[in-house]
Amino acid sequence: MTGRIVPGVRLHDVAGDTLEEKVQNAAELGFKCVHLASKLLCKSCDTDIFGLTDERAKHLKDLFAKEGLTVTVFGCYKNLLEPDPEKREGILRQYEASGRFARVLGASVVGTECGRPDPKNQITEARTTDEALHELAREVKRAAALVEDEGSRLAIEPGWNEAASTPERARKVLDEAGDPAVSVILDPVSLLHPTMLEDAAVQSERELALLGERISVLHAKDFRVIGNEEKAGWCDGSGSRLECYGAGVTGSFDYAPFVRWAKGTGRSIPCIVENGTPETFETSLAYLARLQETA
User: Fold this and answer.
1) Cα–Cα distance between 264 and 270 in angstroms, integer?
2) 241-246 and 215-226: which strand pairing?
3) What does each C-alpha distance from 222 to 70, 91, 262, 283 come to in angstroms?
4) Partner residues linked to 35 by β-bridges
5) Per the count of CB atoms within 10 A, which of 44, 139, 142, 161 is most buried?
């Protein structure tokens, strides 16, 4: 059986004044699944994660079903390496609440970033230490247990700017956490930076070799190299950074290996377009559809 990618979108990238309008627009564009950020949902409901009720989750589940959409990721992208112990415990409680809401909503996974140990959550070299990696693995294990107790599963999204900054470090987090239910949201562009772009194809191979068995969701975006580092982002001290766009928009990143991998799994793999805009969604959808046919 040949696998396939299922095109999806981050709901907060979609046009619409209300959450309901965003859901309708996502369906009309042709997407089949979504990444729903807890931040977007809390803002739309004028509450925090602890104020999200089962009734709200059931209402949204019905709304998504009516539009032919599924929720692939319920995003709780909080800093698991928050250095203040009291704040970190509060963050873990947010993951617990997210697991409960995601279960009722029917979301496939609760998504998390991979953390930075800086008190101001800034991008520093401290994120690349062994200590940060071991600590992240411990916190992933704790967060995953809370999410699982609520009937959901945790998925980590590695990124160059965080403690799981390479596919190798992400693999170590999975191994040290020791929880086979923890999966990976793989965004290959998030693991790039300007000085290693010549090795991007090789890194793509390493990502799939090291993480493929645990990938539950793909993120799909493209990039352009910008000649300054004034804005924090995918930068490495070279004087340049990566500015991100929806998949297929700039032609800088070859997403074909990931579509080939998805087809080889025999599964339906959600593929969420990131950094898209109403003006570029059509391009991204056409790009992914073409790869599904030809890769």
Assistant:
1) 14
2) antiparallel
3) 24, 31, 18, 12
4) 10, 73
5) 139
Average of pLDDT values for 149-164? 97
pLDDT digits (tens, 9 = 90+) for 212-254: 999 999 999 999 998 877 766 667 888 888 999 999 999 999 9
pTM: 0.96
Could you tell me if 89 and 95 are in contact, meaning their C-beta atoms sit under 8 angstroms apart? no
The pair of three-digit structure tokens given for residue 142, joined into one six-digit string: 């704790």
Contacts of 6 (CB under 8 A, 6+ apart): 32, 33, 268, 269, 270, 271
C-alpha 238/C-alpha 223 separation (Å) is: 17
Phi, psi of 221 (to 5 degrees): -145, 170
Q: In sequence order, what DSSP letters do the residues of 154-216 get, joined into one string?
A: EEE---TTSSS-SHHHHHHHHHHHT-TT-EEEE-GGGG--GGGGGGHHHHHHHHHHHHGGGEE
Longest dimension (CA), the chain: 51
Chain mean pLDDT for the chain: 96
Distance CA 101, CA 43 (A): 16
Helix (H) or strand (E) holding 15: none
- 8 A C-beta contact, residue 205 and residue 258: no
